[in-house]
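Practice set, problem 2.
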Amino acid sequence: MMSFPVQNLIVQRRTAKHKAGPLDAPVALYNPDGTPFKAGGDAPTTIPQGALTAGDGISLTRDQDSGVLTASIKAKGVTAAMIADGVIPAAYTLPAASTAARGGVKQSPPVAQVTLADPAEAAGESPTKAEFKALLDYAKALKTTLNQLIAGLSEAGVIAPKA
């Protein structure tokens, strides 16, 4: 079941002065287990004396006409100790990546670029020894770079390690 933040609603007496407007929204109340809320049950209708006190980042103001108590919370005025258990989720741990599941991975170490010049085409039908050596050196450099890249990706967990 998906969890949503709690929205506090203040129930006030309707006065003759109030006319319904565009910001007045109909509200259906439900208990945490999904059953409809019924007033007068075991749910408290008043805040117990001393449960909410001014100070420590909270200021209280009572409207003299309606009697409504408004709590204002200052920026960074609420500490973890002031919040009910279970409201703040446990620290998130990024799972490891695998062939079956996505997860966090480390960066691969840097891999040097191949710096050899591209080998020239053979001058004739058969390459000379120098042309062959240049092509062979180029292939070896590519192999070294590719192996470094594969090893780095494997160490970082991006690809599965060699079996």
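Problem 2, part (b): a different protein.
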Amino acid sequence: MLVPPEVPNPTFDRGCWIRLSDGPDFSGQSFVVVGPAELRAFDLATIARFRRRVSSAETGPRAVAKLYSRENFTGTALTMGSSARQAQVGRAFGASHRRVEALRLSCKD
């Protein structure tokens, strides 16, 4: 489920989410994915423009996220635990992989 960042949502309030921002240090525009969720490719019109521009990410208190540099959960993977903040996603992937192409989001009980 995609949730606009400022809209109250009971599912979002349960803490299983990831917020992806197109600016470094959590700046710029963002969108939230509420889990559990699997996005094999960032091909939805709403988020396709973000795939090359995801610069920072943060997870909710019950979320565990895995970001992938290639579609279908392949390529370099970056795992983010609960309440994690990654201010420079591209740096975490390394010089050769600077974009997020897929995402797995699971929820802790």
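Answer key, part (b): The chain has one domain: 2-107. The beta strands are 2-3, 17-21, 30-34, 37-39, 56-59, 63-70, 74-80, 85-86, 102-107.
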